[in-house]
From TrEMBL:
Record bears the keyword Protein biosynthesis: no
Keyword GTP-binding: no
SUPFAM superfamilies, A to Z: P-loop containing nucleoside triphosphate hydrolases
Keywords: Cytoplasm, Transferase
Family per record: Belongs to the sulfotransferase 1 family.
Record's GO cellular component terms: cytoplasm
UniProt GO molecular function: sulfotransferase activity
Entry EC number(s): 2.8.2.-
Compartments, record wording: Cytoplasm
Species in which this protein is naturally found: Eublepharis macularius (Leopard gecko)
Span of domain Sulfotransferase: 57-305
Name of protein: Sulfotransferase
Pfam family, one: Sulfotransfer_1
Length: 313
């Protein structure tokens, strides 16, 4: 993806600007209801601008529920678009290469980053389907969605709350899980999110992927991405992309692992941004009662949707 010199300079300056912020100014945010969905207070304050965001026909949107494999998919897409050239992906952190449209921060506005980016743009969002700016539908933009089983997703989101010092205070695991199941976390209900996008794929150009499928056969899922984007991947290129985007390589890649964010914002001593990247880690956190309860909720909430998830491989 092409970047102007001005855009590159702004990217290079971002890390130092974040480091210049007074750590005492960093506070855990509160959630505010926006059209029935809990979002950061800061997002609610600029919601009109987000809703009015003007998508372009050649925009590609990567959308997920938080901690469902977003960064993994972003790096895969970037590698596919760059024809497997890792040097093109190593020019800047992933959060600058692919703007997070609804994110607002003292030194970063995803909306402004997106608006300043030359086409074709690849963008990111965690918005549920009903909150997506209408222009994405009007312009018939391609969207790639990845969903992760509810148990592993909950565990990953809990640890993210612990390490990200701007997320709401998670409380204990028991407290967080209760709020998660009730949809009282940022970006709302996991159930509504995965169902809403599952239904949207029947009406719009949405490629719906599963985290567990990616763990099972990464090459197969990368081929799906390339086909969806209309890009041919020779076998050597595919193999380079697979190697570049394995969990071990992603975890040690500073352009993908968020280690360029100062620890006053994301504290790696609490939990790393990329923690385990496995299927089934939920077994280390859930009690039998919690697992059975969530199984019942999941069966009820997903009934009639033909949407199924694997909680182990």
């Amino acid at each position: 993806m092409a970047r102007t010199p001005g855009h590159a300079a702004k990217i290079m300056d971002l890390g130092s600007r974040m480091k210049d912020l007074d750590p005492k100014s960093i506070q855990r945010t509160e959630l505010v209801d926006v059209m029935g969905v809990p979002l950061f207070t800061e997002i609610s304050e600029i919601w009109g601008s987000i809703w009015d965001f003007q998508a372009k026909p050649d925009d590609l949107l990567i959308c997920t529920y938080p901690k469902a494999g977003t960064t993994w998919l972003q790096e895969i897409v970037a590698m596919v678009q760059s024809e497997g050239d890792p040097q093109k992906c190593d020019q800047a952190p992933i959060y600058n290469r692919i703007p997070f449209i609804e994110m607002i921060h003292p030194v970063l506005s995803g909306l402004k980053e997106a608006e300043a980016m030359p086409s074709p743009r690849t963008l990111k969002s965690h918005l549920p389907v009903q909150l997506l700016p209408p222009s994405f539908w009007e312009q018939n933009c391609k969207i790639i969605y990845v969903a992760r089983n509810v148990k592993d997703n909950a565990v990953s989101y809990f640890h993210f709350h612990r390490m990200d010092q701007e997320m709401p205070e998670p409380g204990t695991w028991d407290q967080f899980l209760e709020n998660f199941i009730a949809g009282k976390v940022c970006w709302g209900s996991w159930f509504d999110h995965v169902k809403g996008w599952w239904e949207a794929k029947d009406r719009h150009p949405v490629l719906y992927l599963f985290y567990e499928d990616m763990k099972e056969d990464l090459a197969r899922e990368i081929r799906k991405v390339a086909e969806f984007l209309g890009i041919e991947l020779p076998e050597p290129v595919l193999n380079r992309i697979v190697q570049h985007t394995t969990f071990d390589n992603m975890k040690t890649n500073p352009m993908a692992n968020y280690s360029t964010i100062p620890p006053s914002f994301m504290d790696p001593t609490v939990s790393t941004f990329m923690r385990k990247g496995t299927v089934g880690d939920w077994k280390e956190h859930f009690t039998v009662a919690q697992s059975e309860c969530l199984d019942e909720v999941c069966a009820r909430e997903l009934e009639g949707s033909n949407l199924t998830f694997r909680t182990q491989l």
